[in-house]
Every structure is written in structure tokens, then in C-alpha cells.
Amino acid sequence: MIADTDFTYVIDFDGTVTTNDISSELAAYYGGTTYNEIEEKYRRREIPIKEWLRQIVKVLPPDLKSLLSKSLLWAEIRPGFNDFLDHAREMKSTIVIASDGFGFYIEPILDQFNLLEKIDFVYRNDTIISEEGTLKIINPHAHTICPVCGNCKASHVLKSKKAGKPVIYVGDGSNDRFGAFWSDLIWARDRLAEACKKHHIYYSPWNDFYDIIKLEKPVLKDCSDHSLCLPDGRGIKEKYAME
Ligand SMILES: [Mg+2]
């Protein structure tokens, strides 16, 4: 983490930085009913996101160039993001993007909108062409044994907190709950907001990044009781395994 900052924003990408979920849109475009079946299993919590990625990548064509050009064409940045990044810099905060999508399009999209240079760290999965010529997902930031997330967002949150820098989490998806519940302040919309309600976790609802500019600086909190996983331990807490 950057040494002279006071706190950290950990920000989801699809459906958060972008108004649309590009991984899901690519999967739906190429996968049709197969995508629907895998998505249903994920929504019923029968498979975790890591398995969703592994299954879904098989419906995509092994052509990263055309996948990237579609991603660049479809990406819509949520209003206020550029102003928010300038504000975050003035507030002496570190900006971390943490994504559990296909990952390969994140830096090119940010670059396309002249936003990449304002981001400190991007933690993401990678989608590559294997030696057999098929697409494969690589999870460089996954927990060593936890089967749930492709990218352990909770570990990125904890890394900042251990350095004494509290975390503001910004997200929209149900899988954001693992990182968000370790964070000191949560901005949640859509399925992350539903997860916060379900687990009685305090959050602020948000619509665009102009909302997030308004918030005060966070203070460090002990979130170990209500977090759903232990990034430094065995990962997901057993009682929340597929909840
Ligand atoms: Mg999302």
C-alpha cells in the first residue's frame, strides 16, 4: 500500500466502476442457455464464484482480441468516477480495484477513459489462452485453500487494515460481501445491499460516485465477529459455507 495515505478504498469493478457487468454480458452473449444454467446455480449458491468463472469461461471463444474489443465497446463508466478519483487523491487515500470477473479488460477499459493512472492497485483474475488453445482462468489472488472466491477481496481489505489504514468498501454484487464485511465503512447497492440487510451489517446505499465523495474518513474497526471468512486462516467460516 502507498505509505503516505490515510485510508484505502477497495472498489469492485463490474457493476460498480462500470454500470454494466461485462463478464456476465460476455458470458450471456456467447453462452445463451448454458450461461443461464450456470448463473442460476450461482444465484442458488450451489456453486461459488470461483467455480462460476471456471465453468463460464468455457462458453467464451478463445479469441481475447475480439473479447476485448467487445468489452471496450460495451463498458459504461458510472457517473462521478473521475471526480471521485480526484477527490480520493486529495483525501490522501489509496485506490484499490478488486475484481472477481474475467479481469483481462479492466486496465484497457480504465485506460480508454483516461482513468488508469489514477488507480493505485488493480487486483484481478486473468483470462489466458492455454497451450491447448482454450480459454483458462488464472486466480493469482485466490486464497490457498478456500474454494469460494477467485480473488480474495477480504485479503486486500485486511492488508490495508494491518498497515493501520481503514477501508471503505464500494460494491454491488453478492460476492462483495466477503471483502465488505471486513471493511470499516461499506457503500452497497443491489445484491451487496441485500447481503448487508440479511446479515444485519450497517451500510450506506449509493447510486453513483458523487454519493461516495460525501463520506467522512473511516476509522479502524474490529470486524472479525461479523466477517464471513478468515483470509489469514482457512478462508470461509464453516457456518457461512453456502449461505
Ligand atoms: Mg460487481
3D architecture notes:
The protein has 243 residues and is of the alpha/beta class. The protein has one domain (7-240): 3-Layer(aba) Sandwich (Rossmann fold). The protein contains ten helices and ten strands. Strand 6, helix 8 (177-180) and strand 7 (185-188) form a beta-alpha-beta unit. Helix 2 (22-43) crosses helix 3. Bound molecules: magnesium ion. Magnesium ion binds at residues 12, 14-16, 171-173.
- Rg, Å, rounded: 17 Å
Overall geometry: globular
**Which class of secondary structure composition applies to the elements?**
alpha/beta
Summarize the helix and strand pattern as letters: EHHHHHEHEEEHEHEHEHEE
Q: From the 3D coordinates, which CATH architecture would you assign?
A: 3-Layer(aba) Sandwich
CATH H-level homologous superfamily name: HAD superfamily/HAD-like
How does the major sheet shape up?
Answer: 6 strands, parallel
Low-confidence stretches: none
Arrangement of strands in the largest sheet: 3-2-1-6-7-8
Number of domains: 1
Overall number of strands: 10
Within the CATH hierarchy, at the fold level, what is the topology?
A: Rossmann fold
Question: Which CATH C-level class is it?
Answer: Alpha Beta
**What percentage of the residues does DSSP assign to strands (E)?**
15-25%
